[in-house]
Design goal:
The chain is an all-beta fold. The protein has one domain: ntegrin, alpha v. Chain A, domain 3 (Immunoglobulin-like, Sandwich). Helix content is 0%, strand content 43%. Strands 3-14-12-6-9-8 form a six-stranded mixed sheet, with no helix packed on it. It has a four-stranded antiparallel sheet with strand order 2-4-11-7, with no helix packed on it. It has a two-stranded parallel sheet with strand order 1-13. β8 (73-75) and β9 form a beta hairpin. The N and C termini lie far apart (59 Å). This is Integrin alpha-1-like.
């Protein structure tokens, strides 16, 4: 592909900037299908940025689902690469898209990590690289799917002749020993 609009030196020096914002700041996971969206904006402020890509590396407690609107994306385990503005992202052009993830119940971790980076084959000055990456960290809690059932040991209560019992119970000690349950 011949370089287009790169100045008289035919050297394309791009200036990419990236914004990546998750749909949630913290998460209570209730089902195996809970989803998270990352809204992405990539902008190029200088010469054409050839072969521009957005790379998302993510922790194994989430799975990539899709990108909207549809783009050419490739998935490799916990990394997805999406082409942006192929063959190039033009000067003063920006693109918006959304990447959807769902929770992975096989990997329980207390934080979801997503690192998002914008790159291209064009040169970019060291002084403008600071806004090409975003690190997202979302604290996670899991709702326990615990069901308690109780089966009485005795199907009936025996009251012997002459015994008295309270008509109401004000303390649990009156009906038996206290049961302490702890979860770790």
């Amino acid at each position: 592909i011949p370089l287009v609009d790169c100045g008289s030196d035919e050297k394309c020096i791009a200036d990419l900037s990236l914004k990546a914002v998750p749909s949630v700041n913290k998460m209570m996971i209730r089902t195996n299908k809970d989803k998270i969206d990352v809204n992405i904006n990539v902008r190029n402020s200088k010469d054409n940025a050839y072969n521009t890509k957005v790379i998302l590396s993510f922790s194994p407690n989430i799975n990539y689902v899709k990108v909207e609107p549809e783009k050419a994306c490739t998935l490799n385990h916990t990394k997805v690469e999406c082409a942006v503005g192929y063959p190039f992202l033009g000067s003063n052009v920006e693109e918006d898209f959304k990447v959807r993830f769902e929770v992975n119940p096989k990997h329980i971790q207390d934080v979801i990590q997503i690192n998002v980076t914008a790159t291209s084959d064009s040169e970019e000055l060291e002084s403008t690289l600071h806004d090409n990456s975003v690190q997202i960290s979302i604290p996670v809690k899991y709702q326990a799917g615990i069901i308690f059932t109780v089966r009485p040991m005795d199907e009936h209560v025996v009251v012997k002749d002459g015994e008295t019992f309270a008509s109401s119970f004000n303390e649990t000690k009156m009906i038996g020993e206290e049961v302490i349950i702890s979860y770790t």
